[in-house]
Amino acid sequence: MNRRKFVHDMIVGTSGLMFLPAFLAACKKTKLEFDHRFTGDVIIIGAGISGLYAAKILSQYGNNVTILEASDRVGGRIKSLSGYADFDIELGAEEIMGDHSIWYDMVRSSGATFVENSGATLYYFNGSIKTEIEATENTFFNAMNQIIETIGDYTGSDVTAEVFANLAGVSDNVFHIFNAKVANSIGSCDEHVGMHGLRSIEERRASGTSKKILRNKSLSSILENQFSQEMEKVVLNSVVTNIDYSGAKVSVTDNAGNVYSADKVIVTVPLGVLKNNDIVFTPELPVSHTYAIQQIGFDAGLKIILQFDDRVWPTNTGKIFGPGLIPEFRTTAAIERSADDRFLTAIVHGAKAEELSSQGIGIIDTVLQEVDQVLGEVSSHYVDHIIQDWGNDPLFRGVMSYDKPGTGNARSALSQPISDKIWFAGEAVHTGGHQGTVHGAMESALQAVLNMLA
Ligand SMILES: Cc1cc2nc3c(=O)[nH]c(=O)nc-3n(C[C@H](O)[C@H](O)[C@H](O)COP(=O)(O)OP(=O)(O)OC[C@H]3O[C@@H](n4cnc5c(N)ncnc54)[C@H](O)[C@@H]3O)c2cc1C
């Protein structure tokens, strides 16, 4: 295969990619200058979407791939729960962000159908719940929405969203709605998120503005459909503890003492695992990488699924923004997948998630009190719950990465290979503004593999 054909196939051909990510379009010319490509043994750490996708591309080009996964399942932050409700509940990623992406194409080619009706939004402020129309009768609510609209054009210094909101005049009575819309929605809180990072989120729109949810399938079933061959290469229950890249080959050791050897390694573990130094590198990682790991934000986060014996909210309710520790509740009506519509998901990230998580068995009492506050005394209809606490899970230690003040070019630094042996990939390594998404994780894997093969 000539190198031009290799690069073309890599990007749009045999890999099945119909979509050329913006950052790859920008470097396409460079890719055409490749002289040769690497083939050899590659170990991938982590069997989330980025690990599976990296394995798929590497295998297509004749590399021998092994994936070491710490848990007893593949998928990472794609985690679907079947059999609990009359639809599959997503405990991690849920929405397909945009329809110009590798991920969207994959999901569509798996036979998925989509739901786009997000239902009506309810807002709790000034002591009562309000419909969108009622909320827009309030001056402070309208002013807050106008302030949010200006974020894409922000030119000031890299302060937190909280400082920005205070300076811009977001009123106290709707501050929690600002937090829910702006920071909680990207895995953090307004005390932590930086304004320059928020501005760059506009780049996400390159993948499209739609947010689709699957009607007839779970995201885990898409992985099974699309990555069945890669799943055979996964070693489950292998918690990697050491990566030694001091010799000609890279040596990887797991918690059971198994030692694996490869020419190159791709590390796709969540940023929280790297921040906590759960993997020891020999020699130590360069300062550029350790600094980058600390500079990128990664906060606690929970999804709590509440089951009621009946629907206890108005028909066609989609989201509810509350004033307490739970910034956002989502109903199942919004996704039109449930016949009885009696499941509510509480979504909380950042400082509030840390506080809620620390309550242990008290979590559910707090959540039900807040449900009662926003919906009236409905907790007598509560039946059961499921708590997915991502921040408290040692294999994740958080929910998704975000830019805090000063994150700057940290993702770019983290994406640089080390000694032509170690690459980082995963959502936190995406350099084009698509961090914290499934398609961003895939694009980072593609970028790492293209660089490695060169
Ligand atoms: C609650 C929540 C909601 C989300 N909502 C959306 C959404 O609506 N839309 C969207 O596009 N994205 C969403 N995301 C983000 C999306 O899920 C992630 O960006 C993406 O799945 C990350 O993939 P990844 O491969 O980078 O990492 P992961 O999926 O985290 O995979 C990393 C893997 O590494 C493994 N691992 C950890 N430590 C070790 C070790 N020491 N040794 C071996 N393996 C290890 C982990 O077990 C895991 O399987 C959401 C995420 C969460 C948590």
Could you describe the 3D structure shown?
- This protein has 454 residues and is of the alpha/beta class.
- It has a domain at 3-75 and 219-297 and 405-453: FAD/NAD(P)-binding domain.
- It has a seven-stranded mixed beta sheet. Strands 10-2-1-14-23 form a five-stranded parallel beta sheet, with helices on one face. A four-stranded mixed beta sheet has the order 13-12-11-15, with no helix packed on it.
- A hairpin with a 5-residue loop joins strand 11 and strand 12.
- Helix 4 (49-60) runs parallel beside helix 18 (438-453).
- The longest helix has 16 residues, at 438-453.
- The radius of gyration is 22 Å and the shape is globular.
- The protein starts with a helix and ends with a helix.
- Residues 1-36 have low confidence and may be disordered.
- The chain binds flavin-adenine dinucleotide (FAD).
- Residues 45-51, 68-71, 76-78, 92-95, 97, 239-240, 268-270, 273, 278-279, 301, 303, 390, 395-396, 399-400, 426-427, 436-438, 441 line the site of flavin-adenine dinucleotide.
Portion in strands: 15-25%
Content-based structural category: alpha/beta
Architecture (CATH level 2) name of one domain: 3-Layer(bba) Sandwich
Rg is: 22 Å
Tell me, briefly, the overall form.
globular
Overall helicity: 25-40%
Main-sheet strand order equals 8-7-18-19-20-17-21
Query: What's the story with the biggest beta sheet?
Result: 7 strands, mixed
Mean pLDDT: 91
Annotation field: number of helices: 18
Q: Give the termini separation.
A: 15 Å
Low-confidence stretches: 1-36
Q: Compounds present?
A: flavin-adenine dinucleotide
